[in-house]
Amino acid sequence: MRFQAASHATLAIALFCLALTALVKGLVEDGSKGRRFICHYTSWSRLRQGDKAYTIEDIPGNLCSHVVYNFVAVHEKTFEVTAMQPEFDIDENGFGRFAALKDKFPNLKLLAAIGGWGHGGEKFSNMTETRDRRKRFVASVVKFLHKYGFDGLEVVWLYPGNFERGGSVNDKDNFYYLVRETQQAFTDAGRGWEVSVQVPADKSRLEVGYQIDALCEAADFIHVIGYDLRGWWNNFADVHSPLADRPHDEGNFAGLNVQNGVNLWLHGGCPASKIVLGVPMFGRTYLLDTPEGNSVGSPTIGAGSAGEFTNEPGYLGYCEICTILPSMTLQWDEKAQCPYAFNKVEWIGYEDDRSLKAKIDWAVQNRLAGIYAFSLDLDDYRGNCGKPYPLTRVIQKYYEETKKDTLITWSSG
C-alpha cells in the first residue's frame, strides 16, 4: 500500500511538472518576438510636388523595427495578391527598392499591407467566400514574399461584415479562415514570416466582423487602429485619438477611445503580447460654426482646409500642423490626453510628443507588443519645424528603452 501511494504521489508530481513545463514553454513563446515599433510607408506620398515628395529612399530604417508597404491588393478575378499601383510597384521597381532597404538596414523587417480604405471590402469578401479562392490567394502571397524578400503580410480589410463596403454575413467566419490558412502556409514555408491583422477599436464593427479569440490565436499580431475615432463627419470638434472617455462622450461615442478599444481585444481573449497599438502622425480638422465655439464638442460645419502636402480637406499631416501652430491657440484635453488648436475659423485635433508619451506609457503598463505609426510621410520628415521625424523619434526612444522587456502574459484560459 505504501509503495502504491508513493507511486501515485510520484506520478502526480511528474504530471504537475509536465503541465508546468508546458505552461512555461507556452508563455515564453508568447513573448518570444519581443516589442516592436512599426512604421508605415505610403507609396502615393511620392507624388507630392518638389521636395515634399516622399520616396522609399527617405525611409529612416534606423528608427523602426518594421516598415510596412502600403498597399497591395486582391485581384478581383484571379483572387491573387496583385500590385495596387503597377506603374510604381513594378514599372518603377517599388517592391524591389523597398526590399533593398535591408541592404542598408539589415535588421529591419519589411511587411506588405493588403487592402486599405480605398481598396474596399468586396474583393476581400469575394476572395474569402470559398476555400479554393482562399487557397489560391494564400499561394500567391507565399510566392510574392519569396519573390520580393518581404517578411510578412498585414491584412487591412476595412471592414468584414460591412454591407456598405461590399461585405456579407459570412465575412466574420471567412476572415478567420483566411488568417488561419495564411498562418499555416507561412509555418509550412519555414521562413519566419508573420501575418498580422489591422483591426478597429469600435465595438459595433467587432461584433459583425471579428472572432476575437480565434483571430488572435491564428494571427501573429493584432494592430488596433487607435485613431480616426472622431472626425469632421461627426459635426462637432474633437480629438480623433482620445485615450479615455470624457463627460461629453455619450451614445455611440461612449467607450470609443484607445483604452476601451484595446481592452475589447484583451477581454475577448487576445494576449497583450500580440497587440500593437496604432497611433496617428496626422490630425483631423474642422470648420467652426462660430468663432466663439472653440471648445471640445463645439458644433462644426464641415472639413478644414486641405494642406499643401496631403491635399485632403479635414486632414493634415503633422508636417503641416507644426508650421501653423504658432498662429493658433493651443489647448490640452486632459481626459483624452490629446492636444488641440484653433483660430477663428478652423479647429485641429492632433498628436504631439506629450500625447504620444501618454499612449506609450499606457501601452507599456499593459505590456502590449508595441506601437505602429501611420505614417512616416505625415511626420515632419523634412524638419521644417526642427529636427526631422520628431514624432517618430518619440516612439523610437520608447522602443529602444523597452524593446528587451519580457512580454510574457498570464492567461486565465
From TrEMBL:
UniProt-listed PROSITE patterns: GH18_2
UniProt keyword terms in alphabetical order: Signal
Keyword flag Signal: yes
Pfam families: Glyco_hydro_18
UniProt keyword Signal, yes or no: yes
Residues of the signal peptide: 1-26
Location of the GH18 domain: 35-402
Gene3D superfamilies in the record: 3.10.50.10, Glycosidases
Top-level taxon: Eukaryota
Protein name: GH18 domain-containing protein
Species of provenance: Aedes albopictus
